[in-house]
Amino acid sequence: MTSPLVSISGLEKRFDLSGSLLEQITFEGGRFRRKQEAVHAINGVDLEVQKGEALCVVGESGCGKSTVARTVMGLLSPSAGEIHYDGQRIDNLERKDSLPYRRKMQMIFQNPYASLNPRMTIQQTLEEPIRFHHPDWSPVQVRDKIHEVMHSVGIDQDWGNRFGHEFSGGQRQRIAIARALAVDPEFIVADEPISALDVSIQAQVLNLLMDAQESRGLTYLFITHDLAVVEHFGTRVAVMYLGRVCELADTKTLFSAPRHPYTQALLSAIPKLEDDRPNHIRLKGEVPTPVNLPSGCVFHGRCPYANERCRQEIPQLITTDGGTQVACHAVEEGRL
Amino acid sequence: MALLEVKDLDVRFAVRGGDLTALRGISFSLDKGERLGLVGESGAGKSVAAFSILNLIAKPGYIAGGQILFEGRDLAAMSERELRRIRGNRIAMIFQDPMMTLNPVLTIGTQMVEALLAHRKISKKEARAIALDRLQKVQIPSPEKRLDQYPHELSGGMRQRVIIAIALLLDPEIIIADEPTTALDVTIQAEIMDLLLNLCEQENVALMLITHDLGVVSQVTQRMLVMYSGRIIEQGPTREIINDAQHPYTQGLINALPQMGEPGERLFQIPGSMPSLKNVPSGCPFHPRCNFATEQCKQAMPEYVRSGNVNVACYEVANLIEQEKRMQEAES
Asked: Which PANTHER family match (chain A) (predicted)?
């Protein structure tokens, strides 16, 4: 296999909750104590994105999927671990050295109502990244580039003088995609790009993303909670739970033969058109807080197959016969 | 007689520059214990339809015409005083965001007791016992403890269970649920939907479910309405519509779902987007986005025609039915 375009290894991200030193100190039982608390958003994630693929990261709210996206893009700095782009480590670069990577890597956000500057016209919105990354380009070159991306995402050139608020959600998301494509990126991180849109508009935007992938040879890291979209769009899928990857497989394999008990429950919960009376796999309880992570396998409290080992020991990703990577003691021991 | 019958309902919003028509000629009925789905994209008017049943449309909106008959009495013509006896008591409502529905400064118990005392002459102690019973019905873990907790102490899924418990407090005839699971994760959504379905069945409560999720509608409801730009464009048994939608818009909605497409292939897409209320196209409001639109579609809104058990407002479908009839006549 060729070397991956983006590789993430041992990634961890904690968000400190305890505030300043004074806020951390409490007086208990006659002595001062210092208490520190943190949200453990990502706890050791290893992922490799191959050139030309669409790697989807799925999971429920709070599983750390957006944090992975933001950390890869350099919007957050990792607490531990490394991120490599085309063999080069990028998470510790100086600002100046990171510029070429910022052009190659672009992001599309969930909410097109928030991601467009309300005080900029569409023309200005699209011009800004081009001028920033290509300060030597002539105004004609910039204009031609803008026309090219506008055309490729199917937006009218007359929109240039209008503002973001004048457009519907689907149109705004097109503009946001055009902005990302304007600097000819190789790698796009899309964080729930269609969740805020209506069904008929979702299909339009998904088609647009697939067309762009084909014509520009893009590589995607696609964050979503919608499994139906993953099945349609993804080359491979990583399922996350409480800051860890619990299963990683080809899309087809994952949907036909999910191995991890959490993946199985997640798949069974998708409302499908066919069945009248769905048979959901019921999970006990709810996702625990990422402030106090459970010991051992983070899923053990809700897992019907959990035993003593699951409560003690953190499972590592192992590769099964089908090629699926799964982090589960029950699968490893052949209990499942 | 149907439990709830909406006849030719028109809802308008009086804004500067004239009235905007949010609902036009909405007619449907709901039987006792029936589960009805209301489907459409944002701006179709499904929430306005739900709110107008209990006359909860805030100004500048108003009901401009039509009747809302609940057990034969017209809710649209009732005084605020009379309506208050029905709201929450006979017809309960569940909203999308549980945090907006619950009062953040009152405990769950206080809010439930308050709702009970507003409608029934019972003691606080009795009210608390009923509240506890409903919390048990929605399978909340440790229900006694929840009565004394505040909404922020509960998770999203648990809050929505509390909302369902509150909706069930006074044994309503109808529950109107406006996107009750949209704010929740898939696994929690599946649990809440199961719960709502089972409770409605057990208690023989009619459910009107408003959602944009065709998967949910297909699993939960028996009949469904599809709305577009303030009109019902198709209504009938859920299974029949899902399996064999007649209206081009409904067909498009179903075919645009990623699960209907071949993985990796382009999805079916409906061009354009829903028109704003300020400039609804003439005739059939869907015609600018429709592949089958003809001159006729631009002129006047099509009448409903019956195809199987489904009512559809579309000239194309009407023409097809007409053709079929003629062919059958020619054969015989």
From this structure: D,D-DIPEPTIDE TRANSPORT ATP-BINDING PROTEIN DDPF-RELATED (PTHR43776:SF7), TRANSPORT ATP-BINDING PROTEIN (PTHR43776)
Tokens (6 digits) for B52 = 């107008």
CATH class, domain A1-7+48-234, is: alpha beta
* Assembly ipTM: 0.80
Contacts of A276 in chain B (CB under 8 A): 218-219, 239
User: Does the beta carbon of B54 lie under 8 angstroms from any beta carbon of chain A?
Assistant: no
- Is-cis flag, bond preceding B60, omega within 30? yes
CB contact under 8 A, A171 and B273: yes
Cβ of A207 within 8 Å of Cβ of B267? The answer is yes
Across the interface, whether the CB atoms of B41 and A271 are under 8 A apart is answered no
Least confident range from A16-25, A83-92, A175-184, B60-69: namely A16-25
User: CB distance B266–A276 less than 8 Å?
Assistant: no
Annotated domain spans of chain A: 1-7+48-234
pTM, rounded to two decimals: 0.86
Q: What is the pLDDT of residues B214-252, one digit of tens each?
A: 989 999 999 999 999 999 999 999 999 999 999 999 999
Q: Does B245 touch chain A (CB under 8 A)?
A: no
Each residue's pLDDT tens digit, A10-32: 999 999 887 777 778 878 777 88
Question: Torsion angle, CA of B128/B132/B134/B136, rounded to 10 degrees?
Answer: 180
pLDDT digits (tens, 9 = 90+) for B270-309: 988 888 888 889 999 999 999 999 999 999 999 999 998 9
Q: Are B258 and A171 an interchain contact pair (Cβ–Cβ within 8 Å)?
A: no
At A168, is the secondary structure helix, strand, or coil?
Answer: coil
Torsion angles phi and psi, residue B6, rounded to 5: -100, 125
Reference A205, options A167, A176, A181; nearest CA is: A176
Does B195 contact chain A (CB < 8 Å)?
no
